[in-house]
Amino acid sequence: MALSSIERRLSYHVRHLLPKLLSTKSSHFLAYILSLLSLLTAGFITIISLYAHSWQSVLHYSSWQINIIASTTNLGLYLTPPILGIIADSHGPITLSCLSVLGFVPSYSYISHVFHSRNDSTFAFHASLASFFCIGVSTSCLYFSALLTCTKLYPSKKLLSVSLPTTAFGVSSFLGSQLIKVPWFWTSNSDSTRYLNLARIFRFFAILYIIVGLLAWIATGVVSLLTHIESDYIQHHQEADPLLQDSSVSISSISVSSKTSDTNDTKETNSSLHLFKNPVLLILLVSMIFSLGPLEMFAVDMSTISTILVPSQATPTTTLLPVYALSSVVSRLLTGVIMDFQTRRGYRQKHILFLYLACSLFLHLLLFIVTSTDSSISIYFLYFIGSMFGIVNGGLYTIYPILTLIIYKNRHFGKIFGFLMISPAVGTLLSCLQFAKTFDSNCANDGSSICIKSVYEIGLLQNICAFGLSWLVYNYWSKRNSQI
């Protein structure tokens, strides 16, 4: 497939300079390493729950406003991948890597200015929402460009193409939670109360993503280079075909080739449309909304939830989040290793999915019981719950792309997985706003855990629906693919 005009312009310098410096094999390896490095910083927005206290103390944001910010970010993060997948398939991952820089730098610069100036006006809040939406889109661009680069470099190795990239993205959350512990990022109020200085954090991220964007541009430019080499190779052999040397058949051959190409393009378009019209894909989307929404809500509202569940003891989210993030990282890596092993041995993959869905169902049942009886739990039990949420979250975010790759192959992976990434956007929005509404109405006067009982009642029902719908989907697919 030839490069588009956009991809050709964006990758021009990489395609012309890199072959003079490195061999094709070395360029291949460099692109993979740089993609992993990009992913290690791509998920810093996932530590947004750590900003809650600073927003409340400095800008006086309510729980509803903080959840609106988190939900808007997730809309940008998960609602745009269908479009991004089409852009990447048409113009290469390099287009996404360039778009990510254009979104990250001005957005982080603006919200840094808002916090520094302590501007709590309505206009500043709405402009901040737009900035966080752009940050969500940019995160998705950077993640997708790196993930698609890895899948194009190692399409047959699930560990290298999906597991390690998603693990690196999970590690970014842990790295971010450790990064903000640097003393320079903390400031004291007039009453000597220390808080996270978000102006410094966001300014640092704006500078960081300029560097990361450059690395991602080189990595994705290598993919364009390899595509260009492959296209030239095919074209050269077509021109060397003896049949084309005969002028009597050259015109007819070119005509047939052109018609075949047009036919193939039409078939591919019709095939893509057919995939999106498949009701099984829509059922899978709904099941992912029900499974991922409550999990994302726990990550977003971790600070508030920990305060409610363990009111008698200080439970800083800066301690709970690393436990959650590290568990997610380990889960992503082990899940990828196990699924890669099962693929090579010809074992079915759906059982590990239902293991994680069952664990999620158990966790929400457990929290429903805790909040129903107004039971107090220890800090260590909270860490256990946080680690289990991390394990389930990391596992599901590794399983879904691998299963998508197995079912729809590399040809349609960008479009289909991008479409499925709508699910966490919708799920997070519904679950977070439900939590914020419940907390603001029930927990203002009653700080006991029973005030959020309805949140986990709904979460439990969502998980039951997710399990049932997933069972229907994968029973359908298992009859058509022996690896599912």
TrEMBL record:
- For this entry, the protein name equals Nodulin-like domain-containing protein
Q: What's one Pfam family here?
A: MFS_1
The top of its lineage is: Eukaryota, Fungi, Dikarya, Ascomycota, Saccharomycotina
The membrane-topology field of this record reads: Multi-pass membrane protein
Protein family (similarity comment)? Belongs to the major facilitator superfamily. Monocarboxylate porter (TC 2.A.1.13) family.
Subcellular location per UniProt equals: Membrane
Q: Name one GO molecular function term.
A: transmembrane transporter activity
Query: Which InterPro entries does the protein's record reference?
Result: MFS, MFS_trans_sf, Proton-linked_MCT
A cellular component term, taken from the record's GO annotations: fungal-type vacuole membrane
Keywords from UniProt, A to Z, are: Membrane, Transmembrane, Transmembrane helix
* Main localization, broad class: membrane
Q: Can the keyword Membrane be found in this entry's annotation?
A: yes
Q: Membrane-spanning regions, if any?
A: 29-52, 64-87, 94-111, 123-147, 159-180, 200-226, 280-300, 320-341, 353-371, 377-404, 416-436, 456-477
Q: Amino-acid biosynthesis: is it a keyword of this entry?
A: no
